[in-house]
Design a protein that fits this description.
alpha/beta; 34% helix; 9-stranded mixed sheet; 206 residues
C-alpha cells in the first residue's frame, strides 16, 4: 500500500493547512482533498448515548446526501458512526488520525477502513510509527477544524477532559461555524453541548 508524503509544495496538499507547515502522510483517495465540495466535521463523544448515535446517523446521512465531505477523527462512538454512515451512503470521508500512518495501518482500527479507500483519504501529521496519545489527539483536532468549513459537535457529554468539547471550543475561537444538537433533545442534556451553546455555537433542532 503506497503512503504519500504531502508537503506544502505537493499538488494535493490542502490549502487550509499551508500556514501550519505540517508535513502529512496519507493513504487512500487523495482526489478527495481537491474536491470543491464543502467539508463538514462531525465529532462527538467516544461514549455516545443512544440519542447521540441516532443524531449522528441522521446528521451524517443528510450531509452526505447533499454532497458534503465528512471530516472526523475515527475514534469510537460518534466519529465511528459518522464514518460508517458516510460509507453506507457512498459519501467521501477525510479521516484525520492521531498516530503515525504505519502504526495505524498495522492495527485493528484499519480493518474497517481499508475496504473503502475509494471513498476515504487517511491523513496523519505524525511520524509513521508514533502511537496514539491524548495530546496527539488534541493537536489532531485542530487539523480537523482547519480542514472543515463547519464543525458539528453531535454529543459532548462532559466539559472537563473532553476532546469533542475542546474541538468545538477551539473551532469557535478560530471563527468557524459550530453547530451542536440542541441539548434539550437528549434524555440527559450533554454538558458539553450546553456549554458550547453558551459560548456561541448554533443549535440543530430538527
Amino acid at each position: 500500500m503506497e503512503i504519500i508524503t504531502l508537503t506544502k509544495e505537493h499538488p494535493y496538499y490542502p490549502d487550509e493547512l499551508k500556514e501550519t507547515n505540517l508535513t502529512l502522510r496519507a493513504i487512500g483517495n487523495l482526489e478527495i482533498l481537491k474536491l470543491k465540495s464543502k467539508r463538514i466535521a462531525v465529532v462527538g463523544s467516544r461514549d455516545a448515548t443512544y440519542d447521540g448515535i441516532y443524531y449522528a446517523k441522521r446528521i451524517t446521512r443528510a450531509l452526505v446526501n447533499k454532497g458534503y465531505i465528512i471530516v472526523s477523527g475515527g475514534a469510537r462512538g460518534i466519529d465511528t458512526v459518522a464514518f460508517e454512515t458516510t460509507i453506507e451512503y457512498n459519501g467521501n470521508f477525510i479521516l484525520v488520525i492521531a498516530e503515525g500512518i504505519r502504526n495505524y495501518i498495522s492495527s485493528y482500527k484499519f480493518n474497517a477502513v481499508k475496504k473503502h479507500l475509494k471513498n476515504v483519504v487517511v491523513i496523519s501529521q505524525y511520524n509513521d510509527y508514533d502511537t496514539w496519545t491524548g495530546y496527539r489527539a488534541m493537536l489532531r483536532n485542530e487539523t480537523i477544524i482547519r480542514l472543515s468549513n463547519v464543525v458539528v459537535v453531535v454529543e459532548s457529554i462532559k466539559v472537563e477532559h473532553s476532546g469533542s468539547f475542546a474541538c468545538g471550543k477551539r473551532a469557535l475561537e478560530l471563527g468557524k461555524d459550530v453547530y451542536v444538537v440542541n441539548p434539550n433533545l437528549f434524555k440527559t442534556k450533554p454538558a458539553g453541548n450546553v456549554e458550547l451553546v453558551k459560548l456561541g455555537a448554533k443549535t440543530l433542532n430538527f
